[in-house]
Design a protein that fits this description.
Blueprint lengths: L17 H14 L3 E3 L4 H12 L4 E3 L16 E5 L9 H14 L2 E5 L1
């Protein structure tokens, strides 16, 4: 399993300096096996971009935009969906959904 580390766990290492505390939190999150952050947080966005650049797992848990996406290319979010040959009447809807995802260029579709 995984251990979730929060700011409360880091209190013994923190001093009174806000910037130093932020650096400690950043380094703990940077070294974690996995990182999940809030997409509208610049702190999380920096970690997500750095980890994506180095091939390490990072994700965000909400559907908001990433604040740095205007300045740094956003990694594509995996979009997994299922489609069955037993429901050909849904083919057009699936095609429209995939084309829409590709037009926005924020999702990478995976069909099961």
């Amino acid at each position: 399993g995984y251990r979730v580390v929060t700011s409360q766990d880091m209190q013994p290492f923190f001093g009174q300096n806000r910037e130093q505390n932020t650096l400690i939190e950043f380094e703990v999150a940077r070294g974690a096996a996995k990182f999940v952050g809030n997409s509208v947080s610049t702190f999380s966005a920096l970690l997500i971009y750095e980890r994506a650049h180095t091939g390490r797992y990072a994700a965000f848990y909400n559907g908001g935009g990433v604040p740095l996406s205007d300045y740094i290319p956003t990694p594509l979010l995996p979009w997994v969906f299922a489609h069955s040959a037993y429901a050909p009447e849904l083919d057009v809807m699936v095609e429209v959904a995939i084309r829409s995802a590709n037009n926005f260029n924020t999702l990478k579709p995976y069909c099961l």
